[in-house]
Amino acid sequence: MAGGLEPHLAALRQELGGPAVLSVLVALIAVAITFLLWRFVQGRKSSRKAVLLLGLCDAGKTLLFARLLSGRYRDTQTSITDSSAVYRLSQDKSTNVTLIDLPGHESLRLQFLERFKAAARAIVFVVDSVAFQREVKDVAEFLYQVLVDSTVLRNAPALLIACNKQDVTMAKSAKLIQQQLEKELNTLRVTRSAAPTSLDGSATGGPAQLGKKGKDFDFSQLPMKVEFVECSARGSKGEEGEADLEALQKWLVKVA
């Protein structure tokens, strides 16, 4: 095949004035293709403007959602549907994301995640730092389902583990929560013998490999950037005090 193309390349070199000009032309074409691919990827990313708030029931997602939007405390109850609102990250009205608070009930959470996962620019997974020790297996189970989902793996949205309720004395630290989650997720991937499926029930083409084969799992092995922060939607002074969400707010600015 190469021999058949050589006469045409030789003729093209002659018309263009030599191999140097042809090399420049090929380089320009390569740059143009790279630029178009970059624009395509960036366009897909910019079209995803949602930040999903996920977590188990009573983790504090809805209060966190209300605090981010209004700064004020409000009584909340277990959500049975989603809530969404535009969250401005600065005085510049063009800099904003859509916050979507999804139900944490076991019978609802995957159903709502299925609906919104493709639009996720980022995910905030809220953990109850006080109840974490007794809920760690349930937390890891839900997080595992999120991390092996085909759409999440493909889009790789930024992921924040928000360790909420840090105003309570018995709250576990973000470092301990990270260590325990890595241990539980490692156990889950070993014990899952059946091939995982995506949230819409379609096969992913074989068992999803969470992390690196042959190594204990840690969050740095994932295709998305994962960070942990400590926060308190309620605040140290309860209803009258201000929430401690500074680290979360800085992260939202960074991923917008």
Automatic annotation (TrEMBL):
<feature type="transmembrane region" description="Helical">
    <location>
        <begin position="20"/>
        <end position="38"/>
    </location>
</feature>
<dbReference type="Pfam" id="PF09439">
    <property type="entry name" value="SRPRB"/>
</dbReference>
<keyword id="KW-1133">Transmembrane helix</keyword>
<protein>
    <recommendedName>
        <fullName>Signal recognition particle receptor subunit beta</fullName>
    </recommendedName>
</protein>
<dbReference type="InterPro" id="IPR027417">
    <property type="entry name" value="P-loop_NTPase"/>
</dbReference>
<keyword id="KW-0472">Membrane</keyword>
<dbReference type="InterPro" id="IPR024156">
    <property type="entry name" value="Small_GTPase_ARF"/>
</dbReference>
<comment type="similarity">
    <text>Belongs to the SRP receptor beta subunit family.</text>
</comment>
<dbReference type="GO" id="GO:0005789">
    <property type="term" value="C:endoplasmic reticulum membrane"/>
</dbReference>
<keyword id="KW-0547">Nucleotide-binding</keyword>
<dbReference type="GO" id="GO:0005525">
    <property type="term" value="F:GTP binding"/>
</dbReference>
<keyword id="KW-0675">Receptor</keyword>
<keyword id="KW-0256">Endoplasmic reticulum</keyword>
<keyword id="KW-0342">GTP-binding</keyword>
<keyword id="KW-0812">Transmembrane</keyword>
<dbReference type="InterPro" id="IPR019009">
    <property type="entry name" value="SRP_receptor_beta_su"/>
</dbReference>
